[in-house]
Design brief:
This protein is mostly helical. It folds into two domains: 408 residues, Orthogonal Bundle (Ammonium transporter fold), CATH 1.10.3430; 31 residues. Helix content is 68%, strand content 2%. A two-stranded antiparallel ribbon has the order 1-2. A hairpin with a 2-residue loop joins strand 1 and strand 2. Helix 5 packs antiparallel against helix 14 and helix 8 packs parallel to helix 10. 52% of the residues are buried.
């Protein structure tokens, strides 16, 4: 019998996660970029959201959560990439691993809930590729990457008892599947697409108020992100929500303290990065740990991301020429790895009994869980993701350039999309406005003269 309360919560949670992308990331990333790239940045996120849904129902969902197609011995390697569109699928009861632990929700609810996770993953990569990627290359990259990278990794850790799940690796809500996946792919893509224009390498957010609105949608939307993964309105859903917000609050404060200690003053953009690091870090562990574990994960994830961003990624000779503009690697891959490992440390059997009975962390007597998290989650996901991202982009580069032409970049949105985010007159100084107006008058006069000449002839 349908559990209407849990089904309603899952549809709500899915909508919250969807709002993290549209408009959450559109606002956050769109405000962090230069004004002339605002439309291009938001378009990249919007396209990813739309195209992934199409790929998801045509093949991606069943590839990630459908019946096993490829096995090696007893290990389930790949799902079956078939459509999830027929009435016998979307009107049925959701089929999930160990289904007796979960409330009865419809398959259509589960398909949509898992879609918004699939959609936000490539959308997160936009932060590394702003201000220079060829939009045509992006249009080819997203569907290929979603189908060939995201869906297999989701199958291994979440769907239908994939092989990493069979071995005992855990990822509560996407620390590996989403954030390590996105962070590693973003880093590889940033290296292959190339740098921004030399004169534009410095990050220049044009609207931090817009960024604040985007962060609010991302942060509170994360209640659906982690609170939806028990697949119902359960005790563990509430635990995941409080842990998510607690870890994030700690991460914001830790980032501010580090900014003041090393950079003399806290910044709003830094606090935003701290919040994201905390959200990412708690994601693989949110429904497995108690409040103490959440506090420690939030603090360590924030400190690790801060160090990676400020002391390594933009300074090391090995990485500083890889133009990951918004530090997606540091803010997603690093805390995703940290949170995944610490899930293996702090998984509390008094909490996991509600969602994954038998799961126990090193602190409670099972140090082998940390080994599983390191070798199965971190090593496998990074290796597969990096290799496949490289191959996909290499293939696309044979069809279209990965980087937009310099002349298009110097103009920005008007050249790329034929429109701009802001009317030039609205933000011009008085002198600029007078020059713009004079230019319009001259243009009108010239057009009138030319039209009169044509009529006379």
């Amino acid at each position: 019998m349908l559990d209407t309360g849990s089904n309603a919560w899952m549809l709500t949670a899915a909508t919250l996660v969807g709002l993290q992308s549209v408009p959450g990331l559109m606002l956050l990333y769109g405000g962090m970029t230069k004004r002339k790239y605002a439309i291009n940045t938001m378009m990249m996120v919007l396209y990813a959201f739309a195209i992934v849904l199409i790929i998801w129902v045509l093949a991606g969902y069943m590839f990630a959560f459908g019946p096993t197609l490829v096995k090696i011995g007893s290990l389930n390697i790949l799902g079956t990439p078939i459509p999830a569109l027929t009435s016998n699928i979307i009107a049925s009861q959701a089929s999930v691993p160990a289904a007796q632990q979960y409330p009865n929700i419809t398959m259509s609810t589960l398909i949509f809930f898992q879609f918004v996770f699939a959609a936000i993953t490539p959308a997160l990569m936009v932060g590394a590729l702003i201000e220079r990627m060829n939009f045509k290359a992006w249009m080819l990259f997203v569907p290929l990457w979603s189908l060939l990278v995201y869906s297999p990794v989701a199958f291994w850790l979440w769907g239908g008892g994939g092989w990493l799940m069979q071995l005992g690796v855990v990822d509560f809500s996407g620390g590996y599947v989403i954030h390590v996946d996105a962070g590693i792919a973003a880093f590889i893509a940033a290296a292959m697409v190339g740098e921004r224009l030399v004169e534009e390498r410095k990050l220049q957010p044009h609207n931090l108020t817009q960024v604040a609105a985007g962060l609010g949608l991302v942060w509170l939307g994360w209640n659906g992100f982690n609170g939806g993964d028990p697949y119902g309105s359960t005790i563990d859903a509430a635990i995941a929500v409080i842990n998510t917000n607690l870890a994030t609050a700690v991460a914001v404060v830790v980032w501010m303290i580090l900014d003041m200690a090393y950079l003399e003053r806290p910044t709003f953009t830094g606090a935003v990065s701290g919040a994201v690091a905390g959200l990412v870090g708690i994601t693989p562990a949110a429904g497995y740990v108690n409040g103490v574990g959440a506090v420690i994960i939030g603090a360590v994830s924030s400190a690790a991301a801060w160090y990676s961003l400020n002391m390594f990624q933009f300074r090391s000779r090995l990485t500083k020429r890889i133009d990951d503009a918004l530090g997606v690697f540091s803010d997603h891959a690093v805390p995703g790895i940290i949170g995944g490992i610490l899930a293996g440390v702090f998984a509390d059997p008094r909490i996991t009994k509600y969602v994954d009975p038998g799961l126990t962390g090193a602190l409670y007597g099972n140090p082998f869980q940390v080994v599983l998290q390191l070798l199965g989650g971190v090593a496998v996901v990074i290796a597969y993701d990096a290799l496949m991202t490289y191959l996909i982009l290499k293939l696309i580069s044979k069809i279209v350039p990965l980087r937009a032409p310099p002349q298009a970049l110097r103009i920005g949105d008007r050249e790329m999309h034929g429109e701009v985010a802001y009317d030039e007159f609205a933000f011009a100084t008085q002198g600029d406005a007078e020059r713009l107006a004079a230019g319009v008058v001259v243009s009108v006069i010239n057009n009138t003269i030319n039209n009169n000449k044509e009529v006379s002839s």
